[in-house]
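Tutorial handout. Part one gives the primary structure; part two gives the three-dimensional structure as tokens.
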Amino acid sequence: MILHWQSILLYCFYTAAAIQLVFILGIHLRFAFYRKPKSTTQRQHAVSVVICARDEAQNITDNLPLLLQQQYPSTYEVIAVNDNSFDDSKYVLEYLSKAFRHLRPIELHQEAPLIQGKKFPLSIGIKEAKYELLLLTDADCRPASALWIEHMQNGFREGKEIVLGYGPYEKTPGLLNKLIRFETFHAALQYFSFALAGIPYMGVGRNLAYKKEVFLRNKGFSQHNQLPGGDDDLFINRVAGRKNTAIVIDRESFMYSKPKSSWKTWRQQKTRHYSTSRYYKPVHQFLLGTFSLTHFLFYPLLIFSFFLTQWWIPVSIYGSRLLLQGLIYFRSMRKLDEQDLFFFYPLLDLWQWFYYLLFADTLFRKPQSFWK
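Part two.
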């Protein structure tokens, strides 16, 4: 006779597994089998690319020319906001602006004490933009190709005001790199899938586009100016909707960044990013929290279930979840050029359990008051 508490644990396991399958089949499946919409007309819009930088002279030297040499048949400008830098950023931008007339450097010499993070320089850059379509990225990012602008602006089909892109990290040897890239892939799988399900909740500032009118209509970052982060995810969380958001996942549209090289700096980066999630809309907090909680509970409850019922029942449940998840990961990783991670996905999924433990305290930690 199974005791009452044992029955509760067993039913909790069944519930957690069922909820996981609902997310896998109801949400993640949408991205795994997503196909790019066929466009009957190709229109090139005038585009403003906006980046902000503070003490990033080397990154500007390495990456900005790649943005300035895009193969784009229509008009575009690149606005580089130099936010109170102490290095040689000003002189690098002056030099590049002589060679590229479509580069518009903006020098900031004052802080905005009541506006945290990079929201103030980014707002200045957006307001100075000449064109309606805004493409946003960071100074430490490099486009995968000279067609980045072309692909991202193609996302602005009829009725679309927001375009979510992918910002992967460069592949380097080592375990940390694989974990960083898997976390980035998993986050993208989440926000792309939710967007396709009509529940967009975030984007990444490394590769993001929206219309200037959306920014002005919603009074920019005014609702969360007091937070150092959120210029990308909190803004999109507030303004994105079922009908106005599109995704672009052409490999030539990716925007690459260099990953952190130490566990300490990576944890600091992720802590800063996750500290804003508590400000998401309640429905998004509920959905994301439900998925994370059931994912976290799944493995401990799986172990307990072997002692509470016949062994083949938990094995069958785990195997079914693993196979369905493998299908989702295989197709999704191919789309996002992360297929080298697929062979490790059972271990990487287990790693997520430790990942939740590692960053659980960020839900309660006060965000840092700086962005660089």
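Part three, for discussion. The two ends are 60 Å apart (CA to CA). Residues 185 and 338 are 8 Å apart (CA to CA).
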